[in-house]
């Protein structure tokens, strides 16, 4: 743990002039305000730094816009992308007039989830380990006007460029679904990923690995160690920040969109999770795949509430272009110790009970991690409290089953609209806990339905191929 006094000493000892205060908006994007170092004292870590929150997405209206950013001293690191030495600190939001944490601040909601777990007596720590995949592109263009609409992405690694005159074209383009994981020269991003990984370490993220991913066109993944719920969400936001900025330095661009390329694997964010108490793991036991009954019931809660949960863990229209059969997508609401088409997998973890965990494979990195982790924890706790058994595991190749057998396996929602409808009907597992407010759920549904409406009223390029000659 880092104290406010230690952060202030860091500022003095490193002669830091600027302090960059980062916080997250409702959809899940970092925002920031940079202040001169003399604006930060010990009160900034309790009372916060005031700012105008009227234009932050998903927050309250202009007549309730005064907010304070409360600095978390455990999140301080020197920003590697700024010319002037600048200390970065992640903040939670407080309403200064009441002195209460802001109910729509995602980081505040995550803290409520941690507090709720402790209040149940079931455990005192929830660990999360997200695995966020992404694409590195050389070019991206998109626009929508009254008379046109298009997107264009390109990568020198893209298999679609195997016949392009590149003066010269040296080949070595990963085939569709075969990017996992050839060595150089087919893999052209080794050095960039290494720089990303080492830069993350300088920002306090406990790094593990980096590699190319399955899809052609520059799909990659970096790995970092699991952490406590809020800690893991902080690290994931730092992960995204570092990856985008290192790529930008190389003249490249990164997207965490789940499905930017048609016909190849999309990018997910598999989430490993477990509950501990008193420093001891609670998910290891004598049940299926070495799980405890608590872990099975946690899975039962995840699977029961998944149709609603996905409105938070997979919150974009693009999310559901990834969740389709045929691309290793976890579309089956079942669990298994090996089947990657099942939405919950129990990874092979050996005999160490501390490594026993489950992996929820549906989420993607368009989600706000504070909200996604909090919602998953609430669903799992509901399963434990109500002893919801997940049923039989799916330990078969789903593609070898008959149509009749497949029909008995529930699947993920087919669209964001369907997921939002489910959340509207099933959200007491979030709100009865006090973690999410009814106001937040209602505002989230309204915000996302507006996105749906904006997409639905615009002509799609593929529609011209289907219908222009009607």
Question: What does this entry look like structurally?
Answer:
The protein contains twelve helices and 19 strands. The chain has helices at residues 4-13, 106-120, 190-202, 229-249, 293-313, 319-322, 369-385, 403-407, 416-425, 428-431, 438-456, 461-467, and strands at residues 18-24, 30-36, 49-52, 66-71, 77-78, 86-95, 100-101, 125-137, 139-144, 149-154, 207-212, 219-224, 227-228, 253-255, 269-277, 280-281, 332-336, 342-345, 358-360. Strands 8, 11, 12, 13, 14, 15, 16, 17, 18 and 19 form a ten-stranded mixed beta sheet that branches. Strands 1, 2, 3, 4, 5, 6 and 7 form a seven-stranded mixed beta sheet that branches. The chain starts with a helix and ends with a helix.
Helix content estimate: 25-40%
Main β sheet profile: 10 strands, mixed
General shape: globular
N-to-C span: 66 Å
Class based on secondary structure composition and strand pairing = alpha+beta
Unreliable runs: none
- Total helices: the number is 12
Features:
470 residues, alpha+beta, seven-stranded mixed β-sheet, 22% strand
How is the secondary structure organized here?
Elements lengths: L3 H10 L4 E7 L5 E7 L12 E4 L13 E6 L5 E2 L7 E10 L4 E2 L4 H15 L4 E13 L1 E6 L4 E6 L35 H13 L4 E6 L6 E6 L2 E2 H21 L3 E3 L13 E9 L2 E2 L11 H21 L5 H4 L9 E5 L5 E4 L12 E3 L8 H17 L17 H5 L8 H10 L2 H4 L6 H19 L4 H7 L3
Parallel strand pairs: 1-6, 17-18
Antiparallel strand pairs: 1-2, 3-4, 4-6, 5-6, 6-7, 8-12, 8-13, 8-14, 8-15, 9-10, 11-12, 15-16, 15-19, 18-19
